[in-house]
Structures are given as structure tokens and as C-alpha cells.
Amino acid sequence: MHFFSGGSFYYGFSVFFNPIRDTFHWTAAQTSLAFTLRGLETGVFGPITGFMVDKVGPRKLMVAGWSVIGLGFLLMSRINSLLSFYGTFLVVAAGMSFGSGVVMNAAIVNWFTRKRSRAMAISFIGPGVCGLLAPLLALLIGWIGWRDTLTAMGIALLIIGVPLSLLFRHRPEQYGYLPDGEIAKPIPATMSRVKEDQNSGALSMGFTAREALRTRAFWMLSLAFFFQQMGTSAVTVHIVAYLESVNIPTSIAAFMVTGMTLCSLIGRIGFGFIGDFINKRYLIALSFMLQTIGLFLFSLITADRMWLLILFLLTFGPGFGAPIPLRPALQADYFGTKNFGTIMGLMIVISTIGGLISPVLAGHIFDITSSYHLAWQIFTVVTLPSIPLILLARPPGIPDNVTLH
After folding, report:
1. More confidently predicted of 21 and 131
2. What is the pTM of this model?
3. What's the CATH number where 315 sits?
4. Measured between alpha carbons, how far is 52 from 64 in angstroms, rounded to an integer?
């Protein structure tokens, strides 16, 4: 499900950017505003979906979310104005808020404790290989047009997403299991009341949202990812348009989406697997450093310096991918799992603002200068504060009434 959500909307949709813009003769900034609205929707719905998944579990939310996603793409295939483009984009974004992201992360962290970082790494292989869809979508757009491609994508996501949503379960304790596949030792019947209390306690471990908001760690993590998302959001939206603007063929530009997501697997899997053994905070700081280097290299790319694409992929890719499994795993380590969805939703409100600003800013800079180079140089500098901020995000003190999972 990560594969299809990433390949259709978060990464793969960049190949639709120029065809849709050319059809209606919109500016880059106007088209980019849809991606900002997507981030705004995520920020608004983040706390709501986080709260709801903590209360009702992931399955109902995901069935509804993927139904809305499929419908949104079908509606988008029929747009005839900028307003209708924004509206249908918001519909798909709302579906994604309920069908992926916080909801899937909340389910996974509940089922793993010792192996949490590794579990997150495995789940995020999906977005890491979803870039394979970008060249396929580019071919389909060239063959049948962007409208019919969106129609086909909407139908496919309905057929795939809704049945898979039915497989999700909330917490292992609700089904008589323990996290990490551990097997509970037999308990005498005379201690059945103790067992019941233990199972109840397993469902109530961690900070409340209010307690998390009072910690320094919450704000340092939120701000660190605010600056980090300034760079990543703009790149994922404009990568194809940027490379085409420096006379790199569309086929290569579309393949770079694939290359970026595949190289992000180095960070997703490599950093994610060792995150259960090495301080996750230090690993995230290292990934932010790689991302900053990659952004600087990205700003230097021209048709005469295409070899820089390789260096960009090998730095930005792992730097972009590593925090994806480490961030939810670190949050669960710091604040527990009882209110994981609510706390992550609140963090998203802050960090997503960076992702809201940067795509439109990059598009505006291109409209004024006919170049993206200045935008990438600005985002290189803006990403730097994320490194000291994540290092300052030390584990919070544990309130007296809290037991972490």
C-alpha cells in the first residue's frame, strides 16, 4: 500500500506536473499550489486521523481512505479549471491522510517494540521502490494522455487498496498476542485477574498528547523535520520539471524519480535496520547531512554536468530515505504507543508547514528567473538547522504515571 500511495501521488505524480500545466497554460507556481494544498490537508487532518486511529484502529479509516483516493483520481481526470484541479487534489490528499501515513505507522509501532525500527524499515521498502511507477506513468501519459492515465490509476487503486485495508489490525493485545511475536508464559487460573490487568496496562502505555507537548523533545523533533521537509518536498514535486528545464530528456528525468526512491532504500533499510542497535537520533542527524549535500549537488546539475545526477542520488537518496522509518520508531521510543497517532499528528502539523512553503516558493522562483538553481541553493541553506535540532532532541523525562512500551 505504501508502494501504490507513493508511486501514484507522492512521487509518481511529478510526471503529471508538466502535461497538466501545458494543457491549461498554468504557471509553475499555480500548479505547485496544489502540492501545498496537499500538505495543508495533511497538516489539518494529521491530528484528526492520529486521534481516530488511536480510538478506532486503522482498518475502518483505511477502507474509507482508499475509497476516497480512487474516487479523487477519477474526478481529477475530468478537471477543466484550476479550481477543479485544486479541489480534486484535496480529495485525494484527504483520502491519503486516512489511508496511509500516520494510520499505517500507528498500526506497525503497536505490533513491534524491540524490532520496531526494523519493522518500519521493511514497511517503507514500498515507497522506496514506488519510483518504478514513474517511468510507467510517463509512458502511459505519452500513449493515452494524462486524463486516461488518471482514470486507470483511480480504478486500479480502488481494486487494490480497499481489499488490502481489510487486513489491518490495531494492537496485538486485542487478539491475544504480544509485540515482536513474543509468546506469553502460561499463567495459573488463580492469577487470571493479574493477567487481565497486565493486558489492560499493555494498551495504556505512553505519554498523553498534553504531556508530550510539554517536553523539549517534541518541539526539537518537530522543528528538525520542519526544516528537513523544506528541501525534500520541493524536490519531489519539481524534480522532473527541473531536469527538463536544464535540457535533460523527459525519459531520464522520469527515471530519476525511480533512481531517487531506489537509492532512498539505502537509508530506509540500512539505517532502519541498525536503528534498533544504534542511537536513532545520531542516524537521523547523519541522514540530514547527506540530504544537505545532495541538495547542493542538485543545484549544480545541467545538461553538461549530468554526471552530478549520480552523486545526487547517492547522497540525497539515502539522506531522504533514512528518517522515514527512524522518525516514527524514535517517537514511539520517546513517547510510547498509547497515543502514538495523536502525537504524530500534532508533530505533522508543525513539520508539514515546511513542505507547504517550499514547492510554491520553488515554482515562484522559476517563474521569475526561468531557473530552479536559486531555489535549490536556498533550500540547501534552510535544511542545515535540522542537524543541530535533531541532536538537541534528547529523550524526555518520563512522567510518574507513564509506562513506556
Report:
1. 21
2. 0.75
3. 1.20.1250.20
4. 13
